[in-house]
Amino acid sequence: MEEGWVHAGSLPLRRRLSGFPRGGYDGRMSFHERTLASVTIPSTALTGITGLLVGGILLVGCRSPLDRDPEADLRASVRTAVDEQLRDLDADAAPRETQAFVDDLSQELDSRLDELETLGPQPKDGGAALALGPGLDGEPLEVVPISLQTAIRTAVRQNLGVQQSRVDQAVAAAEIVRAEAAFDAVLGAGVNFARIDEPGNDLLLEIPGGQPVIFDQGQDARQWGFTTDVSKRLGSGGAVSVSFGADETSVYNTSNAISDAWNSAVSLGIGQPLLRGFGEDVNTAEIRLARNADRKAAVAIRANLLALLVQVENAYWNLVLARQDLVIAEWLVEEGDRIREILSNRRGFDTTLAQYADAVATVESRKTRVIQARRDVGRTADALKALVNDPDLPVGGEFDLVPVDFMIDAPFGYDLRNSISTALARSPFIDAAILDIDDASIREIVARNGRLPQLDLQAEVSWLGLSDGFGSSVREIDGDYIDYLVGLQFSQPIGNRAAESVLQQARLRRSSAVIGYRNAIQDVVLDVKNAVRDIAAGYALVAQARNFRLAQAENLRSLEALRETLAALTPEFLNLLFQRQERLGEAQFQELKAMAVYNLSIAELGRATGSGLEANGIDLVVVGPDAGSAANGLNGGS
User: Is 513 found in the same domain as 370?
Assistant: First the structure.
């Protein structure tokens, strides 16, 4: 195995997640800064997580003297959630290294070790020379070597599941813009026209010594006008608007006509809730929730990538094992053919027809395993191709995918406390749980505000001007004619049960989020311990499986030596010989499988601690809106 065998360059996303969730977001106050505005954060990432949670819970209680949080036990449980997982582990303990704790059988068999190593199927035979036959299309298979490094690097770029996660994160990022757009200024304009033609009673005015005058009281008017306004929602919950409008009115009747009467007005209005709905924390809650959703989507990408690394490595070693199983199956057929040939040559001397038929049946049975093993090689290769999603290696194509890397069996050094601390600081599942608590805290702030009475202030002032022309009517707006309106509107449900119920739900959901955080901590610690335990046991199992293989090889070697001295081969002896061949093949496969499990356990530890990406040279970085897609920004490493 090459050193530094995975380096996939930089995977651009909308945020750097290295050490997430430290750092800001788009130049705004970050999640940590907002929730810990009054909390001093220690330098260590682990203590920072604990402080973040305490600050997130205290956030609700520090908003107002009227809204105190009485759940001190809940805050205390959050404060100690991390410490209780580490208190029994010695911080000064030296790192440990895996040990086999099994007898070294190779020393006992040292004089015959080289011979035993060459006895049985050879792992090196699982390379490109493996006979797989034609592909499903009937054509010879194209040999394509592939390293674990290449498989991981390509999968990080091309895997469809990760691409879907990137799209989901882009959707979440777009939701932030939608939420922020609620506070954008709105420009409005309108025009109107009215035609009024109403009959009325005529008014007769008697003039002594003259003709009477008739006044037509009917209405014949035409009116048109326009308005423009700019309005903006405020972070405090109110809204402000500025408008300008003008209209021309022409009135006609039989006796006179008044035309070109222009009325212009400039208005300023503001509406502001004073209790319920007041405050930036309440009115920007949707923006903060959208930002958290964006962070969760980015955390999901990190979690999916960590899982993908394990899946790719698992698929890679499965391909190695499938090819080795085919090597073992073909070796068993070759050994069976050799014994059958020996029996065929001795049929005229001491071999009965039944003995020969038994050998033939055994060989034919072993050929069945060869067919199954070839099928499994194709299946595991397709499974790896599906994960990698390389355009040059489509799942529908027929290739002889040859893995060039092999499992390692070297000791592995580990520090349980350090591994748990790293996991608590970097696991995406804990990051997601922290964001869930913040979401619940934001919703509780809104619910607390919802208990208050509805008391809204409405104010408007207008400056008016009237003249026979548009320009002159505008110039008449000089403060001589002013209309204004000020009002308060109050409402409060009797009993306020709905708002109290919503607040109770919000508190319970926040408590549930804290429990979810504690559960996430337990799950992460359990994953780390299971991975470390699997590594320790896996290393011992590799050594034990090697002892088992050497013992089976010695068993077969001694039986082969006995066969050469026997005058006749009994059915019992032949059956024993076939059994020992199969046991050696099985022991060989068990050793290889133990090595694969050991290597996969190391990969699982990287996933559990959240450090698998960095260990494989994969960095999640921020890209600007004009930098292109995340997939196009991933530069391969060497």
Answer: yes
